[in-house]
Amino acid sequence: MSWLARLSLANRAVVGLVTVLVIGFGLFATTSLRQELFPSLDAPVATILTPYPGASPDVVEQQVTSPIEAAVDGVDGVEDTRSTSTGGSSVVTLDLAYGTDLSTVTASLQRAVQGVALPSGVTSNVVTGSTDDIPVLVLAVSSNLGADRVAAVLRDQVQPQLAGIDGVSGVTLSGVADPQVTISVDAAAAAARGVSLASLTSLLQSNGVRIPAGQLSPDSNPTTVEVGGPITSVDDLRNLYVTPGASASAGATAARPGAPAAPSAPAAGAPVRLGDIATVDQAPAPATGYTRTNGEDSIGLSVTKAPDANTVDVSAAVRDAVPSIIDALGGPAQNAQVTTVFDQAPFISSSIEDLTTEGLLGLLFAILVILGFLLSVRATLVTAVSIPLSVLVAMIVLDLTGETLNILTLGALTIAIGRVVDDSIVVIENITRHVARGGPRRPAIVTAVKEVAGAITASTITTVAVFAPIGLVGGQVGELFRPFAVTVTAALLASLLVSLTVVPVLASAVLKVRPPAPGASPEADEDSPLTHPTRLQRGYLPVLRGALRRPVVAILVAILILAGTFALVPGLRTDFLGDAGGNTVSISQELPPGTGLPAADAAARQVEGVLRDTPGVATYQVTVGTPGGAQGLGRPGGGGGATRFSVTLTDDADSTAVTDDLRARLDALGGPDSVGNLTVQGGQGGFGSDQLQVTVRAEDPAVLEAAAGQVEQAVAAIPGAADVRNNLAAAQPSIRVTVDRQKAAVAGLTEAAVGQLVAAS
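The line above is the sequence of Hydrogenase expression protein; the predicted C-alpha cells follow.
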C-alpha cells in the first residue's frame, strides 16, 4: 500500500484539491441528512380490522374471523395467523416473512379479503405499519367555541393547512363527533299509507346519486347527460317521495329543494312524502368515546411524516403553525389552547446533541492524548486531521446510501473516533523517526509509510471484518443495525486511506524535526528505549521484563481476567434496544367485556386523578372508546376494547422512577375489579416495547381458560415481571332472539327481516 504514499507525494496539489472537495461534500451531506431517533423499520406484520357493530364474539368469529383466516392463509408471504374476536370487532394479525414487500402483500391481502362473503355492511381494512407511521407530533386542541365549531375549523382549515406542510404524510383527527341524521318512522302513519320499512330503505339507497345517462351528440360539442344529484340537507330528505306498494327504485321520486310539498292527505296509491310519515333530524352522533387532555375535553390531532422527510423539520414546521391554529379557534378571547401531548423532535434533537457533544469531547481528548505522546504540536495536528476527514467521508456515504442521522449512526461515529486516529498515529510516529535521522525528506517519508503500511492495513481490515457482518444479519436486527455497520466501516476505511495519502503529504509540508547532533549515528535511536528511556518507558519496561521472566504467571493472569469477564456476562440485562430514555409513558386500561362507555369513562377518570397528582407528569391525554371512529369496535355503546393514556413527563423527570411510581399508585386503586387491568409502559422513546407475549393454545375453551390462568401465575412469579395478565375474556352478556319461522312466514317475514326490524327499533 506504500504506492499510495508515493503517488500522493508526487501529486500533492491533487491530494489537497480532493481533500477540499471531501470537506465540502461532507459538510453538505451533514446538513442534508434527515434526523430521526432510529432508522426507518418496516414491521413484518399485517393486521386486518373488521368492525361488526352489535355482533357477539361467537358471531364475529363464525361470520367474519374464520372466513378471513381461510382466505388469507394461502397468500404468499404469510407465515402465521392470529386472531381476536370480540363483541363488535374482528382483528386478524398476520406474521409476514421478513423482507416481504409490504405494498405487494397488502394488495394481495386486500384482494383476498374482497373475495370473502362478509355480512351486509361489513367491510375490512388491511393495515401495515413501520416506524414512519409513529406520529411526529400529537396535539390536543380545545376552545370555548363549542365542539361542533372546533371540529369544523379543524376539519376545514387546520387539517388542510397542516397537510400542505412539506414532509407531512397525514393529519388525523380524533375525538370529533360527526353529525348524524336520524329518521324516525311513524309506523302507524306509514302502514296507513301502505309504505313498508323495506321500501323506505330502498328509497334512501336509490336517491342522492348521480347516474350517467349517455351523451347528446349534435354536430359539435357533445354534452354529457347525468340524472340525479346529491342530497345536501335535511329538507332534501324530508322531500323524498315513495310510492306505496311499489319498489322505491321504480316509484320513489325526489323533490328538488324549494319544491312544493305534497298534499297532506294523498289519495290511495299516490306518492307519499317522507317528511309526512317520519321525523328527520340532524344532531351530533351519539358519543362512541371521549378524548381529554389534562382532564379537559379536547380533540386530538396527530401528524405523521413521509418516509423521506426530516422528523425535526416537520415538527418545527407544525409548531410554527400553532399560533395560526389558535387564532382560527378564536384566540385568547375563546380560551383557545393547543397542548403538545407527544413530540419526537425534542428527544431526537437532545439525543443527537448529546452524542455530538460526546463525539467532540472524544475528539478533543484524543488530540490531547496524541499531543502527550508525540510531544509535537505539528505532528498532533497532522494526525488529528484524520478524524474529521474520516467522519466527513462517513457522512457522504450515509447520504449516498439514503441513511439518516440517528442515535445508531451517531453512536457508530462516536465509536469510530477513537479508532480512526490509530492508523495516522502509527504513520506519523514512524515518519517522525525516519525524518529525524536526516537525509532527503521524501524518500524518508515513503520508507516510513512502507514499513507500517502492511500492519495498519491488516489492523483496519480486521476491525472492519468485526463490524461489517453486523449489516449482513437477517431480520429486524439486521435492518436496524445495518446503518451502524455501514457508518463504522466507511469511517475506518476512510481513516486508512487518509493515513496513507493525506498524512504523508501534510507531514512533508509542515513537519519539522530537529536534525541529529553532529557525529551522532543515524541508527542511534534504535537502542534509545534501552539506553535513554522516556518516563513512559521507565514505567513499562519493568512490567515487560517481569512478564517475560515469568510467562506462566502472565498467562494465568490473562486467563483469570478472561474468566472473570465471562462470569459477569450472565448478570447483564438482555433486550432489543433497552431503555431509550424517552420522556413519554403509555398506559393501557383493559376492562371486562360488556363494559359500557359510561363505566369505562368513570374508570378512566380514576386513573386521571392519579396522573394529576403524580410528580413528574407534565401533560396527559386519555382516549376512552373510539372517539370519532367506528362505533362498536369492542364495547357496547361505542366503547373500544381499551382505554389508552399518553403521558408526557417533565424535562427533569426520571422516566424509570416515574413509571415505577405510577405502577405503585395505580395498584392502590383497587385492582382489576375496580379499574380493570392496567399496563404501564415507558422509556421507549416512541420505539420498541418492553412487553413479552406468551401464546397458549387449546381446543377446549375450559382447558384453555385453566391453562391461561396457570401460565399467568407462573409468569407473575418471575422476578422483574410486571403487569402480567391474559387476554382471554370472560363471556360477554348477550340476548338471542329465536324466530319462529312458521309464524314469521305467515306474517310475510324472514329471519333477516326480523333482524332488521329489531336492529331498527
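Note on the example: The two ends are 88 Å apart (CA to CA). Residues 731-761 form one domain.
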